[in-house]
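Re: duplicated header lines in exported structure tokens

Our pipeline writes sequence and tokens for each protein into one text file. With two proteins the header for the second block appears twice in some exports. Here is an export where it did not happen, for reference. First protein block:
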Amino acid sequence: MRFDAVAFDLDGTLYPAHRLYARAFPRMLGKARNLEAFNATRRRLHALGSKASYRAEPPSDGEAFREREAQLFAERLGIGASEAAAIIERDFYSGIEELFSEIRPFAGMRAALDSIAGSGLRIALLSDLPPARKLELLGLSGRFEAVLCSEDSGFLKPAREPFAMLAARLSLEPSRILYVGNSPWIDVRGAKGAGMSAAIVSRRKVPEADLSFYNWRKLVEFALN
């Protein structure tokens, strides 16, 4: 087979993102300023991954990354870093995670995981946000050999470091890994830039991807043939 492992993004890849948005909307009413600031902070952190100044002294681990995130969020809102960290945890980490008990994954996704794992390929997960509790509530705990969060590398995708962390955890050359995501920029370009093949969950063909699919059987066929 062309691959030894298939690795997955989580948000918007294993489940339709609109299902989370629909459930999160009532919770975020009245918190539009926090939401805008968090989204802006994450966009800045994605972009900083390519900046020489950030790369010269990146956060050393997930805890340091969270501190940097809180600082940027605090600057955006004009509040203290400790207050910012508490808001992020409440509104965008643990608070959002509990909504996953009400979210159904993509149809055919579980069967695809079973087929891929049953073929002897290893399966792993790399998410930009902490994945463990989400996987538990989605009923997907225990399916992945490795479950990683990009934050622990000090970077967010599409930087090379999260993908390198994934390859190192699996003790594989990047070329032996197929990465599956839902963002052309963050997932496809990031994985390809790190030397991996890339597939994308999309109803439309994405030229940069090795595979664009919406029927999960197509992913199985591509990974195994």
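Second protein block, exported in the same file:
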Amino acid sequence: MKMVIAYDGPRTVVRLAGRLDGEAADQLSGTLDEFLHEGTRSVLLDMSGVTYISSAGTQVLALRYQDFSALRGELRIAHPSAVVLDAIRLVGMEDRLLWEEPSEIPVAARTRSSVLMHRMSDFTREDWRVPDAGATHGHYEISSREAGAHLTCRLYGEAGTLFERNFLPADCHLVEFPDSVFGIGLGAIGNTPQDCLPRLGELIAAGGVTAYLPTDGSLVADYLIGTRSRPPKAMLAYGMTCEGRFSHLARFNVRPGDESIPLSELARVALDSTGGDTAGFVIAAETAGLVGTGLKRSSGIPGGQVPELDAASAAEWLSFTPEPLYARMTGVVVGVAAKSADGRLGRFLRPLDGGGLHGHFHAVVFPYDPLPQRTVAMQALVLRLFGNLKIRGLMHLLNDQRRIEGAGESRFLRGLCWVSPIREVVEEAA
């Protein structure tokens, strides 16, 4: 993104052009912070040249608007492009941010709904009804949410093709992620394969939010927060989604005298609670350390080289955690676990433990934010994290059991796990 700063009397004018994505949002946020520290109290953003804006961009605008207002200053937008106008309308900020109210927006169409703040009515007060389900490292309390609830799992593409060939436009699937759908995969936020293929990275979606880690050199996570009428979309080269309702909710804490709960134990306990052999998960947890990997370069660039993953080239294409990272932070984990790797779903799964449990999980990490110790609505909690905190990391989780150098598996301290059995697996054609 290009940024040009000019001065009009006491007002500072910032002209923006290009993509206001996660990386550019950080740049804009830092610039506005500098203005505040220098004593600037009136800033006008000329956004006529902005061609794309993600939820990271609208979040910066909303938060910095509050900062300037608290100091009796003003932050306004002039000449918004169509995409900017649409984005700020979706978050209900047009009547506060726009310098001149566009005549084409009728008063009846204006809203003040905001996905950056949760409402207290989104939280429930239901008591836990099921006694402790014991395990080695964790203490679990599991409640039944809805009898008979289940998920349909949809598979896109072939997970094993990542380093066999370059992804082509014909491999891509445009997938919508309303709040009833969660999923993971390799993908990018965008509407066309040509736009997304050079940026393919680890992707995660839950609660009406989609986030991914671009591989175009920025390595700054980008995300979109949807609304009921406009859910986020993403282009998947391969991945899986789960749609339906949760049958169970597990609350978990480390047992006294233990240090942390491994992902494999949490997944097995929650899976057993559903009574099925395969289940989909959304987990919100305080982390003890995460082990994983992420793609650093897209294999969707036309004519690009397909890597041979030997020891010399792996570091050029993949980032690995040599030891557990992101301890004492807050993460959202999405994935699927199964008691075997048989069937159509099996090619997307990897071993989670030595007892036959398989799974595929991605995680997005935020600064530490205490999680509620009661039942909450999953979507409200996810929106709170994305709306109020900056993403610190996004990765594909691994169980690294190499004898000497292995970092082990991801581990947690406490949190909530929404889970439901998968009753149907559907393969989606490109």
